[in-house]
Amino acid sequence: MQMGDMANHAYRNSETHLTMQVVNHVRSLIEDGTLHPGDKIPPERDFAKKLKISRASLRAGIGHLAAMGVLNVRHGVGTFVADGPPTLGTEPLALLSVLHGFKPWQMFEARLILESHLAALAAERGRDEHFTALAEEVTEMYATFHEPQEYLIHDMRFHRTIAEAAGNPILAVLMETITAALYEERRRTVERSQSLKQAAEIHREIYRAIRSRNADEARAVMEKHLKLAESAQVKESALSKAGSKRIAAKKKTAGRKPTVDA
């Protein structure tokens, strides 16, 4: 492993540790009854100070919890514990650091196999409350495609809802693990995305196929979505790396002392 890769790996591990610190703290507050469904979490500044982390790290942890359906972020109002939040099991979180070593094509291959079938099952087994939740997430995606980090939360919640609607808890746990890793990876590059409106539109197509109980169509549109998402992810990653290199080059240039002619 080269020095740059080692530094990047160490940075990601540090970020993951801070994210999990927030996740575990919120989990303990829910488990001991300090926080209940519908409760508003402390203000960002106070919460970050209590955990002794930066507000940026706190936002990453809150974003993770929102993507997992544990918290609801209401713009201009605050962040609240979701009604009937899902159990924050340890298995997906324990695998999170391991999954940071995945190759993008491996993740998308796994998603293609799993999510295309989940979409078909959701069309066959989904209930009205699932369809309502999917519609709400699509609406939020259209409302936030100019705010990539917010959009990403609703994107993740959309896919989680499909997994729930499929009616198989084993598949739902597998999807939860993938979603956790995917969110952590994608939030680093999503600001570079150039196709979030197009992505919102194809999510709407998936929703319509599931709502109309067309399993074959739901499977086909999900496959189409994931193939487009893989191409978009490659572009986002390339732009992100190029941007990081430019910043590093500017810092290096700025750090050089000017030469003085004799």
What are its keywords?
globular, Arc Repressor Mutant, subunit A, Four Helix Bundle (Hemerythrin (Met), subunit A), 10 helices, 262 residues, 2 domains, 73% helix, single chain, mainly alpha
How are the SSEs placed, and which strands pair?
Elements: H1 3-31, H2 44-51, H3 55-67, E1 71-74, E2 78-81, H4 90-99, H5 104-125, H6 128-144, H7 148-165, H8 169-186, H9 196-211, H10 215-255
Antiparallel strand pairs: 1-2
Helix pairs in contact: 1-3, 2-3, 3-7, 4-8, 5-7, 5-8, 5-9, 5-10, 6-7, 6-9, 7-8, 9-10
Textual characterization of the structure:
The chain is mainly alpha-helical and 262 residues long. 73% of the residues lie in helices and 3% in strands. The chain contains 10 helices and 2 strands; from the N terminus they run αααββααααααα.
